[in-house]
Structure of Stage V sporulation protein D (Sporulation-specific penicillin-binding protein):
Amino acid sequence: MIEKNAVILQRRIASFLILLVIMIFILAMRIGWLQFIDGDRMTAKVANQVKDSQTLQSPRGTIYDRDGRELAVSRLTKSLYADPSEIKDPDLAASLLAPLLEMPPGDVKERLTAGGRFIWIKRMIEPMVTKQIENVIKESNLRGLGFLEESKRYYPNDSLAAHVLGFVGTDDVGLDGMEMALDKVIKGTSMEHFVDTDSRGIPIFKSIFTFAPPKQGKNVYLTLDSTIQFIVEQSLDKAMTTNRPQGATVIVMNPHTGEILAMANRPTYNPNQFYKYSIKEWKNRAVAYNYEPGSTFKSVVAAAALQEGQLYPEERFIDNGYVEVSGRRIRNWSDESYGNVSFVQVIEQSINTIFVQIGMRLGAYKLIEYAKAFGFGKATGVELPGEEEGLLFRPEDMRDSDVATMSIGQSIAVTPLQLITAVSAIANDGVLLKPHIIKEVRNMDGSIEREGMTQAVRQAISPETANRLTGLMEKVVLEGGGKKAYLKGYRFAGKTGTAEKLQDDGSGYSAGRYVASFVGFGPVEDPQVAILVVLDDPQGSYYGGEIAAPIAGEILGKIMRHLNIYPQMANELPASKENIQTNSIPMPTIQVPPGKVVVPNVAGKSIREAGEALTRAGLSIVPVGTGIAVRQSIMANTIVEAGVEISVYFEAR
């Protein structure tokens, strides 16, 4: 019996050992499978269960005006997220959060019940609202809700320079304007950071922001002057009320450097709430609006004819009130006949028939050649997105009637920026400059990475022709169609324009709809600013001299005061029309208060000559560069304290 029991025990032990070996073998096989066959997948699964990640985006660089005033800044703000699996009562949570988030309760509930472990409820919430939500979460003991800090773009001046600045989308992507054009420069770096989660899979997001943030974007300084920009926009708002145009544009530029000092459009928008506006309101008409310039283009036609010797300022013409070209009758804008007139009167009164004659003298090839020389038919290359090229004929395709209409600013399409750039060339001794709006880009340590430079494109006309044409355009402001831009004590040159508006499909003109404009520069003795005013489809009066010129005059007056350019206090009776010197108008005597001196004009002088002139005037010189004086820090004829230092910039010629 004992032996039998011993055998049974041995068998049971053997069975147990065999079973144990089998189990160990199965376990070893499973471990081997997990380790060598399915190891990568399981490792990733475990990692996903205990880790999460968030992309950290550093704040965008700041955009400043030329004097360091903030135009666009980034601030840290909070975004609300939820873990739907932790939400116990989505109806209650939605009813409490929806009013604060300004969202429909149904939309909030839909996100709270979306499933998964993480979902955004609303991003970039204002600080006051964030505080209210935090109180609600605490008081109602709402689980599964939390905040993450994100960088939000703010525009402290609201709509000021909106079309230049553009705006930024929710994911920190520049969507228009400089924000879009310089997105890679302004936008900082992003960094994906992995964090542990708790046993329930809830990410510990707050720990993310205890780490060093990624590198911030570079700061950008624009050529804009915030004060001039404000002056322009204030006048534009008044014009929108008074003249009720469909749209409007004003550009102010330094004709000696190509720097854009102001650029404004109407309609406009607030980039802080860009999503509330339409694409039409986002459009930067200054660079993306093609229109027929009308009589403002006659300054280019006159420049071409003077340069080519096809026109002499003393020349007289006979105007019969109309001219026929290829069976097409072209009349004067006033429907009047001026008879025997000098060219001074022709440009003063913007007589269409005579400009047709001048254009026919030039011919298609020369007309197009000079239009291209002044930059028409090609984008200027300014650092703004969406720039149009305008429209020019091919000279070989032009009929005589096309030459005639182009001579009076029709059959050509330009952008506002092209036109002011071209007229600035007249103010700049005939040198066409590339317009620019970036002054400099700075690294976070303040060092300059990139600097905007004055770039000459070409010599469009000679300095002598430019000077002669300036004198003629000054007469337009003194006695011609631009009289309403005249400012007592200042000398400005300009040209008005009134053009029929093209239909949207380009098939013809819209009856009773016009584009009124004025373009000019000054002070004539040393132009500091050029200005263009364009009113698209104004209501009531539509002549450029009647509605655009006074806007330009108002803006220029305020700019002169801002730049400390004082009026010349003297007898300003203009010279006789018949005896005027077309290359310039004699400077009136300036009355100087005791203890003050007048800054002389040293343009074109050598360093020695400029130094002697300033010393005689009781001033000091700070020379910059070598060669011939091209500009000075305080413009000529400005009244200043004796002993003031004047920086004079010299360049090789």
Q: What stands out?
A: The domain at 226-563 is CATH 3.40.710.10 (Beta-lactamase). The longest helix spans residues 2-37. The CA atoms of residues 348 and 476 lie 5 Å apart. The chain has four domains: 3-51, 58-220, 226-563, 596-651.
